User: Which sequence fits this backbone?
C-alpha cells in the first residue's frame, strides 16, 4: 500500500526532408542531402537491454527527499558511536512539543521529551537497526540480500497502546528490466506491485492490496520518466488519490521540485513547490504550498562527522509555528 498512500511527452518525430527534383541529366543521388537525412534518423534502441527501474515504492524518492525532510520542533541531539566496522551504537535526545489531535481548528501542543537508544549492524548483505524509547516504544528494521536479485525487508514497531503495533514483510525481486515486490503485514494486509521499463527513460507499473481487517482493497498505477536533467512521476489509485511530481536538475547542486496532490474523496487539492540546494559545507531544502505552509531545513557540516541542523515550518492559516535546532555527531 506504500505507493497508494505514501510516491513528458516523447520527442516529436524527425521532420521529413523532401529533396528537390534535380534537373534533367543530373543524377538523383547528387541532390539528396545525405548528411541531414542521417542526422534525422532516430537512435537505435536495444529493446532487449533496457535499464532496471527503481522499485515501485521509491519512484518518488527525489521528491520526498527534497520536499519532505524530517522537520521537528524543539531540541534534538544524535550521537553515533562505532564499535567496529560493522557495529555501532546510537543515542538520541529530543525535547520539544507534541501535537494533540482535536476537533478545533487551532493546534494543541503538549511538551514532551524522550531518550532513544539504538544498535546498528551493517554488512554487505545484511542491515539491522533497532531502537527503544523511554516511553516503551520499540522499532526494528531488517534488510537481507539472499542473492543479487532477491532480498527481504522487515519493519516492526511495538507500542504499549493497543492496536498500534505494526509489522510488515517485503520480498523484492530485481529483474533485468523490471522489479516486483510482495508485501505481508499484520491486520491481514497483503499487497503486490510490479514496475517495468518500456523505454530507456520510461517505466510503467501497478500495485494491488487487500486489508482484511477493514475489508478494503485497492489498485493503483504509476509512471516514471527519467532523464539526466528531469524526473516526472504520476500515480493514480482507486482510493481517490492522484499524485504528480516533477524534478528539474538545474545543475549538479540545485534542483527544483513541484508536486500536485488531489484527493477525490475529500475534494482537497494541494500544490507544493520547493528547492534543494547543495553547497560545499551545507544542504538547504525548502518548500511552500497552496495551504500557506512554508518550511525550510538546513544541514551544516561543521567538521567531519559533526552536523548542525536547523528546522522551521510556518503555517499562517492555522497559526502554527515550529522551530527546531539540533546536532548530529558521528555517522553510520
Assistant:
Amino acid at each position: 500500500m506504500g505507493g497508494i498512500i505514501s510516491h513528458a511527452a516523447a520527442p516529436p518525430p524527425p521532420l521529413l526532408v523532401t529533396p528537390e527534383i534535380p534537373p534533367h541529366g543530373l543524377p538523383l543521388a547528387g541532390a539528396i542531402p545525405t548528411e541531414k537525412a542521417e542526422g534525422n534518423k532516430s537512435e537505435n534502441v536495444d529493446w532487449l537491454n533496457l535499464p532496471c527501474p527503481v522499485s515501485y515504492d521509491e519512484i518518488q524518492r527525489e521528491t520526498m527527499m527534497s520536499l519532505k525532510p524530517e522537520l521537528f520542533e524543539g531540541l534534538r541531539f544524535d550521537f553515533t558511536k562505532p564499535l567496529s566496522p560493522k557495529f555501532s551504537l546510537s543515542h538520541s535526545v529530543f525535547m520539544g512539543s507534541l501535537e494533540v489531535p482535536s476537533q478545533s481548528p487551532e493546534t494543541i501542543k503538549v511538551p514532551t521529551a524522550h531518550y532513544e537508544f539504538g544498535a546498528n549492524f551493517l554488512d554487505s548483505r545484511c542491515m539491522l537497526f533497532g531502537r527503544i524509547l523511554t516511553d516503551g516504544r520499540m522499532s526494528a528494521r531488517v534488510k537481507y540480500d539472499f542473492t543479487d536479485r532477491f532480498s527481504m525487508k522487515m519493519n516492526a514497531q511495538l507500542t504499549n497502546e493497543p492496536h498500534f503495533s505494526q509489522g510488515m514483510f517485503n520480498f523484492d525481486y530485481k529483474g533485468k528490466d523490471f522489479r516486483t515486490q510482495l508485501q505481508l503485514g499484520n491486520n491481514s494486509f497483503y499487497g503486490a506491485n510490479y514496475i517495468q521499463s518500456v523505454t530507456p527513460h520510461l517505466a510503467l507499473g501497478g500495485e494491488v492490496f487487500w486489508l482484511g481487517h477493514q475489508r478494503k482493497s485497492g489498485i493503483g498505477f504509476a509512471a516514471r520518466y527519467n532523464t539526466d536533467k528531469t524526473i516526472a512521476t504520476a500515480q493514480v489509485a482507486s482510493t481517490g488519490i492522484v499524485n504528480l511530481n516533477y524534478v528539474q536538475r538545474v545543475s549538479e547542486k540545485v534542483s527544483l521540485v513541484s508536486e500536485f496532490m488531489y484527493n477525490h474523496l475529500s475534494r482537497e487539492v494541494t500544490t507544493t513547490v520547493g528547492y534543494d540546494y547543495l553547497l560545499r559545507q551545507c544542504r538547504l531544502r525548502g518548500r511552500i504550498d497552496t495551504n500557506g505552509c512554508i518550511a525550510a531545513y538546513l544541514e551544516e557540516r561543521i567538521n567531519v562527522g559533526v552536523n548542525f541542523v536547523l528546522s522551521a515550518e510556518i503555517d499562517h492559516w492555522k497559526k502554527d509555528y515550529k522551530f527546531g535546532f539540533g546536532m548530529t555527531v558521528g555517522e553510520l
